[in-house]
Fold these 2 entries.
Entry 1:
Amino acid sequence: MATLGELSAVDAEAFVTTSVASFIDDLVESGTNRDAATDATDDYVRRLLPDGIRTKGHRFRSIRAEGREVGRLWFGPVRESPGDWYLFEIDIDEAERGHGVGRAALQEVISELDLPTSDRLGLNVFDSNSAAIALYESLGFKAGTNSTGGHEMWREFRARD
């Protein structure tokens, strides 16, 4: 069973930096030019986190199992769409994958967001990550728009007006 805890400011900053670098690498692997991927990602993160990790609503969590950190995740509100939340990054230690840690962590996030003010939770997944796609589908996420090398998936909390 996994639980979520708060990341320290130092750890959250490091996690964002690592997440951004990893996302750029994923874009390059899917065929995007590195300079274009870097510029677009850096611009997106500046708009997404105008106050850095202290940007209102963004949450940076450690994922803990059996008393130790086995992963991290970051989620926050979608400013352009009130009621929507987005899982910007989830990273589970390689050795912990396939053992229910990711499922338990996502269930914690879903429980935290399943409020009257939350409409849905989205995420992006690369097409090559079939294990993650299967996990997200089993938790009620449905495929949405396609993106470079992958697609968005959304889990509804309540019907949208």
Entry 2:
Amino acid sequence: MRYSSQIRSARALLGWSQDKLARVAGIGLTTLQRVEQNEGLVKGNFSTILKIQKALEEAGISFMDNEAGEIGVHLRTKRGSDRSAQKSKKDRRDE
């Protein structure tokens, strides 16, 4: 289960507006606003929630919750690709 606070936090980590998340997830802005406005477990159409989750996960968000009742989100970084991009720039300068 996802919590509305997780969705809001994930957007904040990505620096995304509600409008951007709605566009990326392929849902209406008012639908996302309705999902985010409630506290606690996300309420809404199951397929809509899956679209939101998929969009955030593809952007690098990892959702977490555990048996102790702790919830949160993490943002995965792309360190490997960042290093190779930096190396490519350096190699081009040396040519």
